[in-house]
């Protein structure tokens, strides 16, 4: 089996200010998480798998808002040993565990999110609406595979919104964009929208509200994400059809109240 580069296996120097920022705001944008050369080495394989596995073939103009937001391909790690190295990277999982304040984390699933040239907004939403999990000890790494200026639609966060319970019952949609834009503005949650350098990554909690602007560039905005959960977390009773589908798909065979220890949910940190 190939060996991942050192920068995917060795610890990242996470300073106390970053930990405080995540706790206070529900997200943190970190620089130099992965060496730019490493990102460049993995991007072609991730992109090739997105092309191979993508099932969205409608022209942009014929899609709904969700479909225009990005091409979404999940669990690429099952289809490529090289992508598996990135998804299972101990450095990324170690950051996730530190931010969550837990000793170990396991995989929920990965997602490649490719916003095509001309792709539309990613509406305001919180990821954990979709997840039948018993606590908020979840975090997603958002790792762009190219420099991501404002024109490409980098991820944007409502700082502090992980403590805001209004809108947690909204799936990602035109309705969530309208309602949450209004509600978050009324509560004066700061909008944080920053460009990403190559090798930067952000981490956001499951209940942190976030969105992304359209991709006005001529290139796809290529992003790899990995969702981590406290290794001791248990499955909660699903509250919507999306959660029921997630339980079947991402935690197969796991009963309500049990820890998801299926082959799809390995512990990633400690490795």
From TrEMBL:
Classification via SUPFAM superfamilies: Clavaminate synthase-like
Keywords on record = Dioxygenase, Oxidoreductase
Task: Give the source's domain of life in one word.
Answer: Bacteria
Q: Which InterPro entries match?
A: Phytyl_CoA_dOase-like
Give the GO molecular function terms. Answer: dioxygenase activity
A Pfam family recorded for this sequence: PhyH
What is the protein name for this chain? Phytanoyl-CoA dioxygenase family protein
Q: What organism does the UniProt record list as the source?
A: Actinacidiphila acidipaludis
């Amino acid at each position: 089996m190939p060996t991942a580069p050192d920068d995917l296996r060795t610890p990242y120097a996470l300073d106390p200010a970053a930990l405080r920022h995540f706790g206070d705001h529900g997200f943190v944008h970190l620089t130099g998480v992965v060496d730019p050369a490493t990102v460049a080495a993995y991007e072609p394989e991730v992109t090739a798998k997105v092309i191979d596995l993508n099932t969205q073939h409608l022209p942009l103009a014929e899609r709904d808002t969700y479909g225009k937001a990005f091409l979404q391909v999940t669990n690429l790690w099952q289809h490529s040993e090289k992508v598996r190295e990135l998804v299972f990277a101990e450095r990324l999982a170690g950051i996730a565990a530190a931010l969550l304040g837990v000793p170990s984390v396991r995989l929920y699933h990965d997602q490649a999110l490719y916003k095509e040239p001309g792709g539309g907004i990613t509406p305001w939403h919180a990821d954990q609406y979709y997840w039948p999990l018993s606590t908020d000890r979840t975090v997603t790494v958002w790792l762009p595979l190219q420099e991501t200026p404002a024109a490409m639609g980098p991820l944007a966060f409502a700082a502090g919104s992980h403590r805001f319970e209004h809108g947690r019952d909204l799936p990602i949609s035109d309705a969530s964009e309208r309602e949450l834009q209004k509600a978050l503005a009324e509560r004066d949650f700061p909008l944080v929208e920053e460009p990403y350098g190559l090798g930067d990554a952000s981490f956001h909690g499951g209940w942190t509200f976030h969105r992304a602007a359209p991709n006005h560039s001529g290139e796809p905005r290529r992003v790899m994400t990995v969702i981590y959960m406290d290794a001791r977390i248990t499955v909660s009773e699903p509250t919507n059809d999306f959660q029921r589908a997630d339980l079947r798909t991402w935690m197969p065979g796991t009963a309500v109240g049990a820890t998801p220890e299926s082959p799809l949910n390995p512990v990633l940190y400690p490795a």
